[in-house]
Write a structure and sequence with these properties.
Number of strands: 5
Order of helices and strands: EEHHHEEE
Distance between the termini: 52 Å
Number of domains: 1
Largest sheet: 5 strands, mixed
Strand order of the largest sheet: 2-1-5-3-4
Helix content: 25-40%
Shape: globular
């Protein structure tokens, strides 16, 4: 199943990821299953990237690399300084807790998904938007 994923933050004007094709291994039946699927794929990708660094004698960025990274909003050499593996169970637990605590919202085809375990119908090629909400902080002088 394929969806289109968008990641946004209220604190920034530009999207972190804008409508990117994102294949799912299985069709999720609830918001909880969707979150678990997305987190599982991201942890797997992170762990593979950490365990298989590209061996380059000289790290450099081509003009194309720089242009692509500018669109995302961060230009760097993709160096991973912490080589520890991410814990999938902890990542899933944290992402579910963050949703329950209201740290991010999920919209599926412009409709807010509010309940984790309510049956959910996600059609093929749906647009799924994750919006990270930022907390306002006060400053003590």
């Amino acid at each position: 199943m394929n969806i289109y994923l968008t990641l946004k933050s209220l604190a920034k004007r530009k999207n972190f990821i804008t409508k990117q094709s994102y294949p799912l291994q299985a069709k999720p039946n609830s918001l909880r299953e969707l979150i678990i699927e997305v987190v599982t794929q991201n942890v797997k990708q992170f762990n593979e990237k950490a365990s298989n660094p590209e061996l380059r004698i000289v790290n450099y960025l081509s003009t194309t690399d720089i242009e692509q990274q500018v669109r995302v909003g961060k230009v760097g050499f993709q160096t991973i300084y912490n080589e520890s593996q991410a814990d999938l169970n902890k990542a899933i637990e944290t992402s579910i807790q963050a949703f329950e605590d209201g740290l991010y919202r999920v919209f599926i085809n412009d409709e807010k998904a509010e309940q984790l375990d309510t049956p959910l119908e996600i059609p093929e090629d749906s647009e799924v938007v994750f919006i990270r909400l930022t907390m306002l902080t006060g400053r003590m002088w």
